[in-house]
Amino acid sequence: MRVVLVDPSRTATKFISRLLETRQHEVRCFADGREALAYIKSDQEVGALITSAEPLSISGLELCWETRLIASSHRPIYVIMMSSSQDQDKMIAALDHGADDFLNKSPMPEELFARLRAAERFVNMQRELIRLATTDSLTGMFNRRAFFERAKALCARAAAGEKLAAMMVDIDHFKRVNDTHGHDVGDAALCAVAHELMNERVLLGRLGGEEFALLLEGRSMADAVNMGERIRSNIEKLEIESGSVILQLTCSFGVSEWLRHDTIDRMLKRADMALYEAKLTGRNRVVAADHAMLTTNYDEVGRLVRSAAKSA
After folding, report:
1. pLDDT value for 103
2. Which residues are catalytic?
3. 291: pLDDT confidence band, cut at 50, 70 and 90?
4. Chain centre to alpha carbon of residue 118
5. What is the pTM of this model?
6. Which domains does the chain have, with CATH numbers?
7. Rounded to whole angstroms, how far apart are CA atoms 40 and 4?
8. How far apart are CA 263 and CA 255, in angstroms?
């Protein structure tokens, strides 16, 4: 586990870091609390913080509190306050400020190892819970809730002027695949398409059924269309085994880009409408949202387009 160790005493940090390294922990040592905090923010792999009560620049209690705010619900960090004092009030204050455990300074090695084992159990359990809560169990990509949660940061940067494009992807005739070949083959088809999409370094999620969404940070509409064409071509070449039959798939794509004063819902709805235009005009196509979609009643037209697409 990667551990951040904070103490103004070089002797203390050298002693404790050597102990931890004998048990294969990766240790990052700091004397300054603010420097340690900046490192914790930048390194997503930090699993534990061990801090003395009086690091430089900020107090150990402040460091505990700030680290707990960083940890949030998406990133587990186990916090241990270390003090040479046996004062119960200090222990209570540490726990109230976000510490998970309290350790006497210059700890016995076996006690330190035992507390780090507890930290590892906690962090691993939390990471597994986060994975289960945010991941689509079939495809391994983000589920709908996690996708929209992570989209907030990208949309904030787009609102500040960065490029952002969206892509909606839907497997063509997926109901026919399930009805003809069974749900096991349908699941294999979903996983094959998801694997192809996950080769791209973009934010993506399974929004439901056979529908996927991608957000392309720093990309224009033209960039997204080019990417969509490449993915479409790759998916067209996929082969899914169904007994003695080799099943081939196609997908339809709708693309949009962030506009001034936009929202994630409006951008995705434009991409969704472009997707269903692709369905209506032959499937296995990439369609970019046009300007006629900008002032449209998305909910009503989307309902009509979906209805027409299903009957096509």
Report:
1. 86
2. 210
3. low
4. 26
5. 0.75
6. 2-134 (3.40.50.2300), 144-311 (3.30.70.270)
7. 8
8. 15
